[in-house]
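Figure 2 data, in text form.
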Amino acid sequence: MHAREPAPSVESRLRAAPPHALVTTARSLLAERVGALDVTLLLADYALTVLQPVTHLPHTGAPVPAQEGPAGSAFTHQSPVVEVTDDPATHLLHLPVTVRGDRLGVLSVRLPAKATDVAGVLRLAEFATALGHEVDTAGRDTDLYLRARRTRRLTLAAEMQWQLLPGRGCARDEYVIGAHLEPAYAVGGDNFDWSTGADDLTVTVTDGTGQGIDASLLTGLTVGALRNARRAGVGLADQARLADQALYAQYGGKAYASTLLLHFDLTTGVVRAVDAGSPRLYRLRGNLLEHMALQAQFPLGMFEETAYDEQTFRMEPGDRLIVVSTGVHAARSATGDLFGEHALSQVLVATGPTPAHEAARAVVAGLIEHFGSKDLADDAVVVCLDWTGRPPA
């Protein structure tokens, strides 16, 4: 008698599903294993304002707020939320769908009430994470999930920029990153990027000159050149120098990219920085907000054969770093008030207790309120990094 083959794991069932059929597969799995009566995957839209149900495109269900209600609470606070329904026999469980700190959305599962005990919720939270990894991977092969995130059409420039981004968040034991970008559906030249290693982290924030496609093409070349140099294993100053040469060779100084480059040593907390332009860096330590006035150097591509110098500072556990592009710190209200002079500082301090991803979003929300319109005059990027560091060996 042959031993019975073990049943395929949840992860293997998800991996075996066609890219477009992950929600259908998740629905079947949860019906089999926990008696789920209904399963809905909601993905955060590009502006982080709503959670959009993934259904048969081009049709979709009604979106729900990303910052309010049970599903919004699960997304914002990154913890499961049990919603008591009108039917006492069932509960609606909302689970954050997050991949290594990048918040994708929420999985809402209608369950028999008895299935929402603590152990059951924890198992379903793990399932939501596994589903998130598969959704993230499936984006290489299908447009379904990217299209489901959209409340309206992206401009071509914005499409190009979003394809460049690594995500909107990243989390490890030593740090948590949250980032936000506006106008989400029409961004042109602003970008953020990061890469994490065993003992280090590199973060860049870029603000390309120009508008629309021209700005997007410039920023695409900048990010590609920086990645190429970084992956060659050269230091931060040489990454800036090589990207500067690539841009000057293409544009001859007629277009350039203001860029802030940061390299973190995860063991020591030492940060190496190259300030090549206009993105500004702030550090919040306790309740003390400090503008990190780095040595201002030429933007990438402005002049031929520019040499760049690194500066260093040190992070302490509990520190928060915030990088803002020109579209944030140089924005003016309808009355001409500069956002960076007073309002930005207030928002940065006020958002100190909130998680990094919500802090980044709140800064942009404060900018929009200050500006008086969602139609910002310039692209705006905020990258927020909360530092824990490593305990001494």
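Caption note: The longest helix spans residues 118-138.
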